[in-house]
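Session log. Operator J.P. requested a structure for one protein chain; no other inputs attached. Running the standard single-chain path with token output.
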Amino acid sequence: MEDEKKSAAHNLRLKAEELIGKIPRKDGSALTKAEILRLIHELEVHQIELEMQQAELNLQNDELSALKAEFQDKIENA
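Structure written below.
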């Protein structure tokens, strides 16, 4: 599972690097290596933020499922 996450993250990074390299600047010149690296860093930060948000959503979903099951039991016992 962890290897799949790393592979997916790596593939996303490669795709992002490819897309970033195609972004034209307003003056028509290509992005510099430093600009590309800065954008990649920002993408990595956003990816971590999204992973943290996903973990929180998963936790809340688990709690909601437990509450739903508890509520269902109470309705059945009533």
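Operator note: The mean pLDDT is 85.
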